[in-house]
Amino acid sequence: MIQITMPLNFLGSVYREIRQALVDMGEMFDLLEQPAEVKDKPGAPDLKVSGGAVRLEGVSFGYDPARPILHGIDVDVPAGQTVAIVGPSGSGKSTIGRLLFRFYDVSDGALTIDGQDVRDVTQESLHRSIGVVPQDTVLFNDTIRYNIAYGREGASFSEIEAAAKAARIHDFVVSLPEGYDTQVGERGLKLSGGEKQRVGIARTLLKNPPILLLDEATSALDTETERDIQESLKAMGKGRTVITIAHRLSTVADADRIVVLEDGVVTEEGRHDDLLARGGKYAAMWARQAAEEDSEEAA
Ligand code: ATP
Predict the structure, then answer these.
(1) From the CA of 168, how far away is ligand 1's center (Å)?
(2) Closest by CA position to 136, among listed 228, 184, 201, 180
């Protein structure tokens, strides 16, 4: 009996890891319906993360070979640094996230983590090493405790609580009559956008991945909540490699580096101040967004 249940347990935990990564990515990229297109190489080793440096070297990719989306791009994310990818809608930002998770294989070039090509390691170890904080955290119809614990199987209650405190959702949770046992989701208590995102942050903190992929905070949050969430995300990024996929610019100004992607090509990169001083595409995008925000505030 033991001989049978051990492998089943093992498979179960692998399955849960993959499922979790798929749920996270599904939230972020609408991937739930997508068939797995890539397979582990026979005997592939696990990814070994030392610092968490991510590199795209001459990466080209198209969902359809006849329509290339990324054209030989180089992006260097040194271990422990934060790199923001910005650019117009459809420029290929989210596609980079999908390639990092190896939901697709690059058609040319390579994507490496600490020097290991993502095609050469197990997907399970790859997914375990990367935490995703999507714009819109999907909650399971279960308790808050379960929804946070989903970040790591077997987490103790004090670990769950510590993650909730770090994500600044603990005080809210204990103010509810049933505390951590409160049912949430479709059939339970409806959480606000900011509260849901904090549950997502707590879940990711519990997973404790060396690499974070952030989809920037949703515009559905009010400015104060968004600023607050940004603070939590920034705190979570300390000591980790962070790739922020930014659909707006307001949140990327203090990234270590900003990469501007246009039509699948890197057209500018540097720090916020340098890019503003250059007076190129980024500066123009920044000026346009500032004007839009001013007119929204005036309205
Ligand atoms: P946004 O800021 O609007 O989210 P983005 O820069 O993240 O945009 P991507 O989602 O990477 O853009 O999309 C880049 C291009 O790839 C788009 O033209 C899109 O239509 C196409 N694309 C995205 N996902 C798929 C898919 N699953 N199959 C085919 N084409 C896709």
Answers:
(1) 33
(2) 201
